């Protein structure tokens, strides 16, 4: 899909992948509603951007966002759901509210936005893109709830594609660990993963994926190579997983763990 001339809603734009993606989108002839729960004063004067502050984990806020977008833009050609967060933890206590919070933001908001785009566009061409994670295919110890949300979203989208029956396209983005504020949200003291990529690299891959209408976008060539190596040498992922389990156990036993 040609990005030029499109009206876009992008969530999670205050930092990380979302901010970098917004900067790349502004190189095109577009109008973007930049959504984040944090205020974004640096965008107020940009002629191509309309900042919008809201918490997408609530149904009423998504309804208000779409109403705002239609009033300001007339249509929404592309919806990019990038907002989300994760926990790094060893689950040792029951916590319903913690589960509910992450699923509302990472899963419910995205599925509901996809339904809103369907209802809004009917037989128009439109596109939806959601940020998932390579943890859908290769879960990492410490991220059980985060991986669960991304697997749930991935399962919905892979099935929903066949059910839509209109002119919509849905893209899924599978980044590896990225140098963003995600790690501060997941836990300031948590050990970093390897390999790491930059938000800029992910943003460029997303733009290219949108233009080529790729159903699945994998920004990391290292990850793609790793899948091949893992298939040929099954011991490699087992050793990597053992290393990550040791890191989690060490972190969990430290006084820095939030449940301690």
TrEMBL record:
Presence of keyword Oxidoreductase: yes
Entry GO MF terms: oxidoreductase activity
Any single Gene Ontology cellular-component annotation: membrane
InterPro entries from the UniProt entry: NAD(P)-bd_dom_sf, SDR_fam
Pfam families from the UniProt entry: adh_short
UniProt keyword annotations, A-Z: Oxidoreductase
Superkingdom of this protein's organism: Bacteria
Record has Glycosyltransferase as a keyword: no
Region forming the signal peptide: none
Family, per entry: Belongs to the short-chain dehydrogenases/reductases (SDR) family.
Protein name from the UniProt record: SDR family NAD(P)-dependent oxidoreductase
Organism: Alkaliphilus pronyensis
The organism's taxonomic lineage, starting at the top: Bacteria, Bacillati, Bacillota, Clostridia, Peptostreptococcales
